[in-house]
Amino acid sequence: MNNFYINTSILPIVDYAGYGDKTTEKRHNRGVNYYSMIYVTAGSLSVTENKAHYIVNEGTVFFIHRDGANNISFESTKSVTYIYVNFFMQDFDAPSNNKIMLGRTVSIQNTAAPEVRYIYPLPRILEKISASILDRKIHEYAEYFHSPGRLTDLEINTRFYDILSECIKYNSELYNQHGKLSDRIINYLNEHMTAQLNTLDMEKKFFLTYKYMGTAFKKETGETILGYHTKLRMNYAKRLITTTFYSIDEISRMTGYTDALYFSRVFKKHFGSSPKTFRKIQNKL
Q1: Could you give the CA distance from residue 190 to residue 233 in angstroms, rounded to a whole number?
Q2: CATH for 179-285?
Q3: Where are the domains of the chain?
């Protein structure tokens, strides 16, 4: 499956979104610009596209072009449920003479009034997105689409475009990184050592829920994310206490604590003595 390309000057238009299973799949064919995003929430799908065959497992998003030349069939040995969004989109091939910058393809047409278009590659398959931010957004979108209080079609299309944007980010920023998830989290915690742990920022960075990251981190390191982050801050504070003349209040602020008394309690829990006592002991050595 090759990528699709989204032209930001012509955004996709949603036709319908809903929930499907083995009994509700129907052929949809409304022209060459008709597509489906399908998120398998249970079971497996067997997909044949242009004579190529794929098994799409639970927790996978895939996009398919409903131009009549493609065929979707279900794996007969397993039940399957999924969320789908059918939409119209003008697809573009990536011209060979385009310039690639910052993950974007900039297309300049040779016309009297040159047009600059931003074209993003949309991955055809995203695997293992269960418990991710993308998983949550797709479920919320399906619920919103059928809610009685939903707003205009513009809102429907805008929310779907946000999902497509999430797919692009999820593919480029998560799956193109190598190494264990815990290693990437550790790098993040080191970069943000002197700040309070912000779980929402972490979810945006890794496109995973904090609960999922915490479980994976604990399994891979034996520590909690918060515990590891606190340990980094305390070791940094200890280094400042033993190698500088900063006051305890200053060191508290330098390690990201606005409350010096709370900082002292955390420090004592880690090293067995308060910061002031710890400094006196070290000075006598």
Answers
A1: 9
A2: 1.10.10.60
A3: 4-174, 179-285
Residue 17: name the closest of 160, 218, 165 by CA: 160
Distances (CA, A) of 95 to 7, 108, 114, 164, 229: 13, 10, 15, 21, 46
**DSSP states along 178-217:** -S-HHHHHHHHHHHTTTS---HHHHHHHHTB-HHHHHHHH
CATH topology of domain 4-174: Jelly Rolls (2.60.120)
Q: Which of 227, 221, 223, 233 is nearest to 192 (CA)?
A: 233
Q: Which residue do the tokens 């190598």 mark?
A: 178
State the helix-helix crossing angle for 225-243 and 260-271, rounded to 10 degrees. Answer: 100
Q: What is the pLDDT of residues 143-167, one digit of tens each?
A: 889 887 766 788 899 999 999 988 8
Bridge-partner residues for 72, per DSSP?
Answer: 47
Q: How far apart are CA 169 and CA 159, in angstroms?
A: 15
> DSSP character for 131?
T
Residue type, 73: S
Structure tokens at 63: 């996009």
Residue written as token pair 């930001």: 8
Q: Which residues contact 160 (CB under 8 A, 6 or more apart)?
A: 12, 14, 17, 85, 87, 141
- Reported pTM: 0.57
Which residue type sits at 222? G
Length of the chain: 285
For residue 25, what are its two tokens? 């799949």
37-88: pLDDT as tens digits: 999 988 888 777 666 677 788 889 988 887 654 555 555 446 788 999 999 9
